[in-house]
């Protein structure tokens, strides 16, 4: 069955406190020069109708009011 | 008056909501999330908790339950619906209320008593304050990790203009970074109301405040 990966992240301009927390922790570990950290999530799935991925994202996987999503279609061989 | 309180797997405040409804003098019963038939009730509570484990996003999965489909139809027909905390998140996810609830700005789960300003009420005439009109304040507990109300600026402006901001945190008491201190909103028709704080936990003098009863009574009267 075709495989897909959906990347979901907070929309630009929406405060992402998780990203900020990660960003603030980095200098203590010696990682300098890192900014604009955003934390999102990844959903991997197999779908026999990849044409419905957009609808799936709009209705459930993402909340379009607060999140952007990107669909990556992976090879169908897996 | 008969209330129905939707119970999802992971709900945890449905019994307090039931008790609160009964304290207003109404009857109340639980509605299992798989029930498609609301059984002739007059008003609905979508209670607090962690429906379906809050997987994906708080409220995202609960909105697809049979009971929520029925609640959607009930709301569309003008039936009074009150969403509390997770219930507010469910109503937003279902598109029955505008906006969304995000992680608290400070990333902490907050649990404390807050004062809410009842934006919707007809301003009370207060002779002791020199005759000024003042909006009533309610003392109600808030307990949540994802309660930061968000809507795009234009939507917030429209909510204010239409009188859809139902409850605001009193100045300086916003516990989560909500836009414009918004603690609760209503839909355009006014019959669907959602708020993050928990009026069902403020219904008995034993626990310090009975202000929560006002919220149930207001929603029952269709002016939450």
In short:
Chain A contains two helices and three strands; from the N terminus they run βαβαβ. Chain A is an alpha+beta fold and 78 residues long. Chain B has 224 residues and is of the alpha/beta class.
Account of the 3D structure:
The complex is a heterodimer of chains A (78) and B (224). By secondary structure, chain A is an alpha+beta fold. Helix content of chain A is 23%, strand content 27%. Chain A has one domain (3-73): Mth169, Chain: A, CATH 3.30.1280.10. Chain A contains 2 helices and 3 strands, in the order βαβαβ. Chain A has a 3-stranded antiparallel beta sheet with strand order 2-1-3, covered by helices on one side. Chain A is elongated. In chain B, the strands form 3 sheets. In chain B, strands 2-1-3-4-13-12-11-6-9 form a 9-stranded mixed beta sheet, with helices on both faces. Chain B has a two-stranded antiparallel sheet with strand order 5-10. Chain B has a two-stranded antiparallel sheet with strand order 7-8. Chain B has one domain: Rossmann fold, CATH 3.40.50. In chain B, strand 7 (124-126) and strand 8 form a beta hairpin. The two termini of chain B are 16 Å apart. Chain B is 21% helix and 28% strand. By secondary structure, chain B is of the alpha/beta class.
